[in-house]
Amino acid sequence: MEFDKNTVIGITLIILIFLGFSIYTQQEEAKFKKEHPQQEQAAKYPADNTKKDSTATNTPIATTEKQAIDSVSIAKMGSFAAYSSGNEQLTTIENEDCIYTFSSKGGVIKKVILKDYKTFEQKPLVLFEDNGYDFNFSFITNDSKTPIQTEKLYFTSTEFSRKISGSQKLDLVYKIDLGEGKVYEHKFTINGKGYVADFSITALNFGDVIPANQSITLNWTQQLPSQEGGLDDQRYSSSLHYFSNEKEEDNISRDKEKELSTPIEWVAYKQKFFNTSLIADKGLFKTGAKVSVTTPKTDEHIVKTFSTQLQIPFNNNNAFNFPMRMYMGPNKYNNLAQLNVGLEEIVPLGWNILGLINKYFIGPIFYFLAKFISNYGIIILILSIIIKLVTFPFTFKSTVSMAKMRVLKPEIDELKKKYPNQAEFGQKQMELYSQTGVSPFGGCLPMLLQMPILIAMYRFIPSNIDLRQQPFLWAKDLSSFDSIISWSHNIPVVSSLFGNHISLFTVLMAISSIAVTKLTSQTQPTTGGDNDFMAQQMKIMQYFMPVMLMFMFNKQPAALSYYYLLFNVLTIGQNWIIQKFFINEEQIHLQIQENKKKQPKKNSFQQKMQEIMKQQQELKNKK
Q1: How far apart are CA 473 and CA 482, in angstroms?
Q2: In Å, how far are 59, 279, 307, 326 from 52, measured between CA atoms?
Q3: What whole-number distance in Å separates Cα of residue 423 and Cα of residue 440?
Q4: Separation in Å, CA 559 to CA 341, 409, 473
Q5: What is the CA radius of gyration of the chain?
Q6: Rounded mean pLDDT of the chain?
Q7: pLDDT, tens only, 467-524
Q8: How far is the C-alpha of 25 from the C-alpha of 13, rounded, in Å?
Q9: From CA 366, how far away is CA 215, in angstroms rounded?
Q10: Contact of 452 with 357, CB cutoff 8 Å
Q11: Coil, strand or helix: which one is 37?
């Protein structure tokens, strides 16, 4: 076939035009994909699931399917469908204590970093983040077939990232504008310092959008990341708390689901040293809230997962607003008390008298010393000495009473030989105590009066965030165990009770407890005869207790074992001083003999005991 010159030129121009148009189309398509990544991803969806005709272009198919998706969204979401797609915009607001990351997708706080704290591995302390975190409002509208989920909506906001400080305040408003004055908003107010953020949801002119007598449901789920040393201790110390309209605070620490039968004021997700709390500022969350706690069986990076479903009452008002407060920070008693909603009760200082001791005695002394001393090991030492000085009168009275019992022992042994009948012996023994002015319980009662302080310290130290990551001697962190030997493999039963390490302070505490037991047994009067077996059993138990304490305290904070070690050492020193300089058994013996010559004064307890013993003896004689 022959082609003339014009034909060749025409074909060449057509080929060049076609090639030029193809190159231009590819460049424009690449530019569009770069500027609109989400729509490019949406365009890929049908390509992955349908077989395209090789002769067709991409544009018509993408346009047709986008229109189909929009139609489905409108059918499901009604007027909210326009906000079901978009680009997520992140905004970072930093104050003096926190770094907040906000997301336009869902209009929520996506991540919180506490600036003044680090994890056990010295990484930035992320209180929570989007991975494992859900804060979603859902509600029914008159023009939607399915509930609206705010976590799937793209809100609009004009705010930009910045830093604030001091008395500054910043409002962030995330908005969905449906037109005709119908606006749904999430509003956050961040302060220049501190851990509290105001938060509210607002629905303007929504009287005909949300059906009457409906609630707005908040589904809030948070995974607690491991931030401290010792996963078992973190799980033991983590719990979900809530405060009901009945003014009763309750908590759940074990795996459980529960539906609450009363309105509640606040919910708190408490970790060992930090918490995230949501407070209804002027109203209450409706009856029917659901809470749940789950513990992962295999994931060692997650302590627990907390979930709450809250019902926010929607009053069908065209100017609906429900204000709340969010606390995202450390479990400091004074900080939480300033919120004035009882949130400080999540700090486990103990109930009744234990809590009073910690709040008004141990706590004030500890924090006063902390103003002048930076080493918390020294603070605990001084605090231990102060406690010993305060309890010295009780210890002194107990030691003197035991000395009297030792002096009186020969006479008691004689009574035992003279009156083999146990009831008759008991009666004569009480008469002897009455004559000599010796109380058989004088050595026990003063010691029992010291027990509340010992138990109060058991609650105060583990919950004290000020001890967190504070080093002392070989302990790197007084709020965690001080491991000197550790092993990686698990030993059945032993690992669950004892852990995979040995804490030196715990070992020293156990040794000092044995020393105290030995010293006490030497100063206490012993019994003989029929009671030998019981005495031996009691002695074995006394020496067995320090071993049990090792199992109890090996996974506890080093500061706690350190305190009880100091308590034992100070007890040994205190008893030595009393025995050396205050106790003279010869003088005690002379005083007892002088008391015998006086008219005995029986207290009500002694009189009651003698009457009981006399009645028992009379009944036995009748038989």
Answers
A1: 10
A2: 12, 54, 44, 51
A3: 17
A4: 31, 41, 11
A5: 37
A6: 80
A7: 999 999 999 999 988 888 877 776 665 566 667 778 899 999 999 988 888 887 766 6
A8: 18
A9: 47
A10: yes
A11: helix
Tell me which residue of 39, 78, 74 sits closest to 59, measured CA to CA. Answer: 39
Least Cα distance to 233 among 564, 548, 560, 510 occurs for 560
Separation CA 143–CA 23 (nearest Å): 46
pTM of the model: 0.76
For 442, the token pair is 């004088």
The residues near 481 (Cβ < 8 Å, ≥ 6 apart) are 229, 230, 233, 499, 501, 503, 506, 554, 555, 556, 557, 558
DSSP 52: P
Please give the residue that has the higher pLDDT: either 285 or 525.
285
CA–CA separation, 557 and 11 (whole Å): 87
Q: How far is CA 122 from the centre of its chain?
A: 20
Contact 421, 429 (CB under 8 A): no
Nearest to 328 by CA among 122, 188, 468: 188
Number of H helices, E strands in the chain: 17, 21
Alpha carbon distance 192, 168 (integer Å): 5
Q: Which residues contact 443 (CB under 8 A, 6 or more apart)?
A: 398, 399, 401, 402, 405, 524
Phi and psi at residue 537, to the nearest 5°: -65, -40
Token pair listed for 307:
């979930």
CA 264/CA 555 separation, integer angstroms: 35
Ranges assigned E (strand) in 331-415: none
Six-digit token pair at 51?
Answer: 């077989």
Query: How many other C-beta atoms can be found within 10 angstroms of the C-beta atom of residue 443?
Result: 21
Q: Letter for the amino acid at 289?
A: A
Question: Which positions ≥6 away from 373 have C-beta within 8 Å?
Answer: 379, 382
Nearest CA to 100 among 382, 324, 329? 329
Residue with tokens 């300089």: 581
Q: In 3D, which of 126, 104, 121 has the Cα closest to residue 328?
A: 126
- pLDDT attached to residue 416: 77
> Lowest-confidence range among 56-70, 120-134, 461-475?
56-70
Question: Tokens 């010159």 map to which residue?
Answer: 5
- Tell me the CA distances in angstroms from 420 to 437, 440, 529, 530, 536, one per residue in order: 24, 20, 11, 10, 21
E strands along 153-214, which residues? Answer: 162-163, 169-179, 182-191, 196-204
Tokens of residue 164, six digits: 């604030």
Assigned token pair, 96: 């003096």
Name 108's bridge partners. Answer: 103
